[in-house]
What we know:
The chain has 203 residues and is mainly alpha-helical. The protein has two domains: 21-82, Orthogonal Bundle (Helix Hairpins); 93-195, Iron/manganese superoxide dismutase, C-terminal domain (minor pseudopilin epsh fold, 3-Layer(bab) Sandwich). The chain contains eight helices and three strands, in the order αααααβββααα. It has helices spanning 21-43, 53-60, 65-83, 93-103, 106-119, 165-168, 172-182, 186-195; strands at residues 124-131, 134-141, 152-158. A hairpin with a 2-residue loop joins strand 1 and strand 2 (134-141). The longest helix is centred in the first third of the chain and has 23 residues, at 21-43. The structure holds manganese (III) ion. Manganese (III) ion is lined by residues 27, 31, 77, 158, 160, 162-163.
Amino acid sequence: MAFELIPLPFDNSALEPAVSAETLSYHYGKHHQAYVDKTNAAIEGGEHSGKSLEQIVAAARGADQGLFNNAAQSWNHAFYWYSLSPDGGEPSVELQSAIDQSFGSLDQLKEQLKSRGAGHFASGWVWLADRDGKLSIEETHDGDTLADSDFNPLLTIDVWEHAYYLDHQNKRPAYLDAIVDAKLNWRFASENFARGSIWTYPS
Ligand code: MN3
């Protein structure tokens, strides 16, 4: 069965001005769609047909770089859309407690997300992740993912240029300020933290 592009969980213009409808029309409508289409084309009728996207990511890692890139990017982008929200709410009491223990405060976590995102060389992803109740900020390069890792990802931010160039040009820190200050979906992070296992792509 083919994977479908998940519906965007908000209107195209809901994140403006942090992320514009024009950016989403390309980033979701073209880039993400292409990753899903290429994943489907690569697995059709083959040994990976019928597997979950997480199983495909794990099987392709180190074995089939082309499939890995497209499968991981399909997963990462879906996770990214859920990590964003026009009104992201607040961390649950349990997540807030873990944030305080690991970072000191939510504000300090936000500052670290911004600085790690700004400092990440070239394309990649910055994550808030949990491992056994200890939270950390992780980075993956290019299309790499935490979908098959020992970490439980709670949130991610795409720091590829295509995520922000139309809105902020080369100013990645401006994009990160806008996202991290007001558009992170703390409800989604809290759900992921409470579940304690890695989110799965709808199938
Ligand atoms: Mn992207």
